[in-house]
Design the sequence.
């Protein structure tokens, strides 16, 4: 029997055959509801794609695989956190009530088992939340100067992440001041290769690590995109379910749609 876990999907399936998405059925065969496999979402056989947890999971995976910073998924993250906090409060209250009642019947044992399963799910969701934030903090640390000096990238951060980036740079500057003070005067700026050069601004840009937008990533198309125009002006036909290894910069525009027309895998 499937039990609602409070996150918009079920802990189990009434039918084991439902675990496998119909999108992976043999080509040309329709699913049980009479829908062609190409009209089905690639993941909906596993978990509803509109659930807050699935949306946060997708944001985490995309953040991990994307060379550049993605916009902070504020509404999704807060929705998941609110639901998780409410479920934790409910589980803790039920545990207190069982302890106060001093029961031990079959019904209480069944409830304890279900609560244990709920705690497993809560911990899974908490892991996704932590890893999403840790992934973003790691990217901020890796390209801290770029994040702080590029207005578009800085705007993608949450308020807490913006404060973290500013504090990280302050600490980094303090460290470099202690390290670089013994070097010749022209080499004491952590952002400029040599302060005696004519074009210090251009040199400073060279010293700021930036994301490699030409890095190769794996795209999977979520829908058909006819006549997609690449940055070089060439047109290409993209089909749903198509997987391709390509430079991120060539197809990054596909991720800008809501919902995105492609995903990184």
Sequence:
């Amino acid at each position: 029997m499937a039990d609602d876990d409070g996150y918009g999907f079920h802990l189990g399936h009434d039918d084991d055959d439902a675990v496998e998405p119909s999108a992976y059925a043999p080509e040309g065969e329709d699913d049980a509801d009479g829908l062609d496999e190409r009209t089905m979402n690639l993941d909906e056989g596993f978990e509803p794609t509109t659930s807050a947890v699935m949306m946060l999971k997708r944001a985490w995976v995309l953040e991990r695989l994307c060379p550049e910073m993605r916009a902070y998924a504020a509404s999704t993250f807060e929705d998941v956190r609110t639901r998780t906090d409410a479920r934790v409060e409910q589980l803790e209250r039920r545990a207190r009530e069982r302890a106060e009642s001093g029961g031990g019947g079959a019904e209480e044992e069944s409830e304890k088992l279900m609560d244990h399963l709920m705690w497993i799910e809560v911990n899974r969701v908490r892991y996704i939340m932590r890893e999403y934030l840790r992934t973003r903090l790691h990217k901020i640390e890796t390209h801290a100067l770029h994040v702080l000096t590029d207005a578009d990238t800085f705007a993608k951060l949450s308020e807490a992440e913006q404060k973290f980036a500013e504090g990280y740079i302050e600490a980094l500057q303090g460290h470099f001041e202690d390290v670089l003070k013994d070097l010749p005067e022209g080499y004491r700026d952590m952002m400029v290769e040599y302060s005696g050069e004519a074009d210090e601004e251009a040199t400073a840009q060279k010293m700021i690590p930036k994301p490699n937008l030409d890095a190769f990533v794996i795209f999977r198309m979520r829908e058909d995109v006819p006549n997609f125009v690449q940055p070089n002006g060439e047109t290409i036909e993209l089909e749903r379910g198509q997987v391709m290894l390509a430079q991120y910069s060539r197809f990054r525009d596909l991720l800008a749609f809501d919902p995105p027309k492609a995903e990184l895998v």
Notes: The chain has eight helices and five strands.
